[in-house]
Design a protein that fits this description.
With about 450 residues, the protein is α/β, with parallel strands linked by helices. The strands form two sheets. It has an eight-stranded mixed β-sheet with strand order 1-5-6-7-9-11-10-8, with helices on one face. A six-stranded mixed β-sheet has the order 4-3-2-12-13-14, with helices on one face. Helix 3 runs parallel beside helix 4 and helix 6 packs parallel to helix 8. The N terminus is likely disordered.
Amino acid sequence: MAALEHSRSLLVEAFLFIILSTTAACVVSTATAKSVPLPPLRFKNSNGQFKILQVADMHYANGQSTKCLDVFPSQVATCSDLNTTAFVKRMIKAEQPDLIVFTGDNIFGADTKDPVTSLKASFEPAISAKLPWAAVLGNHDQESILTRKQVMEHIVPMDYTLSKVNPHFHGKKIDGFGNYNLEVKGMKDSELEGKSVLNLYLLDSGDYSTDPKITGYGWIKPSQQAWFKETSAKLQKTYKSKPSEQAESAPALVYFHIPLPEVKIFRDSSIIGIKQEPISCPSYNSGFLKTMQTYKSKPSEQAESAPALVDFHIPLPEVKIFRNSSIIGIKQEPIGCPSYNSGFLETMVQAGDVKAAFTGHDHLNDFCGSLRGIELCYAGGFGYHAYGKAGWPRRTRVVVASLEKDARGDWKGVHSITTWKRLDDEHLSKIDTQTLWTKTRLKSF
């Protein structure tokens, strides 16, 4: 699927080069100044939680005239972009999030008649609900008459958005468009009300490689990682400094579109469940897995062999490949990651505050896997004008950070981060609830 997308994109880019070269001068930004000032993000509800709704891969195009992909034949006639909009609205009503994060491919640029109109329509549910929201770009948002920079420039002035084109960084250029951080302040009237107790980083993972020696998707560049490292270090220092100095760093979450190359380690076809202890298998591998895969029975009159199940007590050595402490969700397609590894996982590990990173891009994957202390999570495909799988509902991911209280009942910092997914079915089914991170040495409630 990733290869097909890349081939299609190359054709689109070749066509767009001709169009853009003659019309770029005529593209006039219709963005206007934001009319609604936004207060700081803050833990403010009665249960001390902050809830984030991740919307990945809407692939919005032209509204009702844009038909759905990969649905049952009986759904084709009535299914359109409006189903995507309805799903966003259902989720807002059901979860009442404090923030919505759109993680790229918000519009499918190549199919839009007017990308500015499509952008406005794609984010309309968040705007009409008067909810804070933020967006990053995927690899399809710019496949129209707008460049990636122009797409972000149209997003940033919209009402209720916290999106930014790029931060100031010592006068240096930062690669991409849509690299920024958001701070979530502590509970009002608590000692941490002026400090960020949850840090969010949003980065542009690019579209496609611009290096002729490297094929495939783009990646998070050194300039972006330098900004991330410096920003993380500053926020951690502030959190640990007076007033109300803290012993540990505030947790951080990272959002971008294209998954990291390391996600390829989760290479089984279906990952469901939890691994909580080491695999107790033989130190010697007798090759029984290969035997099961290659054994052929005597010829029979049937075209295919009857299915077989094998039961035994001690697991095979190959089970060790599932060496992550928590693997929950489903993997149904190859990982569409860059062929070049820019080292961003290592950068996040070294920063020390990142607990989870959330991506989209591969619509049929919705799992979380823990690698080097960081949960790497997909949201699953959200939009109906995006490839999917008939009978496998479109879905979204919810993340909740919860504060702790001290012995006196005063609100403190974040003590846990949990997640689940919601399906766009009759009941908005809630599945795969899991804890991504829990603070050690919790204080009593």
